[in-house]
């Protein structure tokens, strides 16, 4: 395969390009209108799924596009959440326009340090180094007073966006919180779609396919990987901000390797290399978790939902190696193979 093949965009027909643009827009409009028909419980569930979809999209940039498997991505998610709470005033609502960028910049700053060191390693060593840095951040918040210890800390008042005397966004109002999360999900998806089609995105795809060849053609692959690492961390920090604003509390478990493993499972379940797959994986993972942990549905088995969910993940990976997003193509290929076998017979 030539270098130009690695770095050139896929040729798409006008029809397929139009469909790729219409579907995300249609889904975004449906999400924005859902509060008009959903119960408060279902609205909270959609909110949770949307936040995790942002988190999954951020990791997709690393794993699906660049080929960097990280087990420490939750550190940036948790840092964004902790910065949101720590930087918020105790008696007045914090400024949304300040706290959100601050959470993203804080996560990005830590990623710059972690990436500068961990990206000098490869394979399993990179996985272990990112995990080690995430555990370091975890214990900083878990074992010190700055993060409130194992109990975490609480957000006194949710932030708002105000221009003069006019309050534009007040996150104490459920609808404002919902629409902000949907807007952030749309913005994250749109940003990554632009990156995917840019020269930068094509370079990341080339690095994933053959980094040595990309270096030989003059690309500074370390700089590209570091940039992707920082951007992914900043998006994870945005998800952390939204989680802190939604729940009003943060705890060290947000930085644990369990959280990193969960979001990694989401993008594997949805299908690596696809933005829609990352979102679909987040939807499926959260819905399965809610189903298996519901005692009204699962009975006593709900107490062991982790086991049931784990077995389900193994089944999905075994029967759908390309994830949920690849089901249609997989079934079509099997149908064509069966038809060709029938013709030969």
TrEMBL record:
Q: Does the keyword Transmembrane helix apply?
A: yes
Q: How does it sit in the membrane?
A: Multi-pass membrane protein
Instruction: Name the keywords, alphabetized.
Output: Cell membrane, Membrane, Transmembrane, Transmembrane helix
Q: Which GO terms describe its molecular function?
A: branched-chain amino acid transmembrane transporter activity
Q: Which GO terms describe its cellular component?
A: plasma membrane
The source organism is: Massilia eurypsychrophila
Ranges annotated as spanning the membrane: 20-38, 50-83, 95-117, 124-141, 177-195, 222-242, 262-288, 309-329
Q: Which InterPro entries match?
A: ABC_transp_permease, LivM-like
UniProt-listed PANTHER family: ABC TRANSPORTER ATP-BINDING PROTEIN, HIGH-AFFINITY BRANCHED-CHAIN AMINO ACID TRANSPORT SYSTEM PERMEASE
Compartments where located: Cell membrane
**Major subcellular location class:** membrane
Q: Which CDD domains match?
A: TM_PBP1_LivM_like
Q: What is this protein called?
A: Branched-chain amino acid ABC transporter permease
Q: What is the lineage of its organism?
A: Bacteria, Pseudomonadati, Pseudomonadota, Betaproteobacteria, Burkholderiales
């Amino acid at each position: 395969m030539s270098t130009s093949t690695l770095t050139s965009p896929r040729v798409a027909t006008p029809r397929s390009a139009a469909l790729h643009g219409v579907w995300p827009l249609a889904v975004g409009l449906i999400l924005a209108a859902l509060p008009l028909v959903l119960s408060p419980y279902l609205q909270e569930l959609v909110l949770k799924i949307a936040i995790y979809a942002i988190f999954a999209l951020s990791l997709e940039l690393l794993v699906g596009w660049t080929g960097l498997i990280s087990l420490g991505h939750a550190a940036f998610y948790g840092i964004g959440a902790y910065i949101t709470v720590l930087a918020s005033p105790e008696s007045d609502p914090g400024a949304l326009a300040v706290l959100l960028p601050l959470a993203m910049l804080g996560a990005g700053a830590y990623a710059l340090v972690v990436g500068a060191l961990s990206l000098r390693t490869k394979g399993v060593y990179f996985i272990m180094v990112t995990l080690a840095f995430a555990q370091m951040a975890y214990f900083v918040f878990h074992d010190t007073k700055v993060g409130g210890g194992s109990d975490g800390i609480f957000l006194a008042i949710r932030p708002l966006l105000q221009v003069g005397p006019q309050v534009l966004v007040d996150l104490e109002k459920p609808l404002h919180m919902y629409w902000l999360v949907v807007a952030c999900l749309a913005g994250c998806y749109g940003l990554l779609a632009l990156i995917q089609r840019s020269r930068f995105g094509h370079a990341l795809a080339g690095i994933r396919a053959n980094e040595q060849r990309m270096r030989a053609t003059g690309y500074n692959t370390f700089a590209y990987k570091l940039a992707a690492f920082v951007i992914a961390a900043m998006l994870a920090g945005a998800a952390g901000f939204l989680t802190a604003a939604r729940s009003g509390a943060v705890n060290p478990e947000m930085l644990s390797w369990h959280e990193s493993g969960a979001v990694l499972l989401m993008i594997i379940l949805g299908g690596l290399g696809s933005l829609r797959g990352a979102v679909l994986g987040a939807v499926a993972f959260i819905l399965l978790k809610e189903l298996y942990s519901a005692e009204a549905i699962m009975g006593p088995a709900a107490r062991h939902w982790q086991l049931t969910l784990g077995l389900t993940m193994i089944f999905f990976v075994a029967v759908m190696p390309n994830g949920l997003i690849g089901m249609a193509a997989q079934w079509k290929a099997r149908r064509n193979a069966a038809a060709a076998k029938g013709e030969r017979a």
